[in-house]
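Checklist before submission:
- one chain only
- standard amino acids only
- sequence pasted in full

Submission:
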Amino acid sequence: MAEAKVAHFQNDLGVPVIEIGVKEFKCCGASSPYDHPHVYLDIGDDTEIVCPYCSTVYRYSPELTADETKPSGCLFRDQAA
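Returned file contents:
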């Protein structure tokens, strides 16, 4: 079975708001060892959602692609992969 790739984002910068180009994603908190459980979030019909673990506000921006963030550098890259 094919597995859909879900974008993962992190907030190493400690910013209050991260703009993203997807509405379904996982928040990781920050890089290990400062991460939290990778929680799946779905913005749905809204334009933003707050991570219940780290309180980062994720705001949907249709101008961004799935691997872009504002500020840049908030896309999670798994070091083990």
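Reviewer check: The chain has one domain: 13-70.
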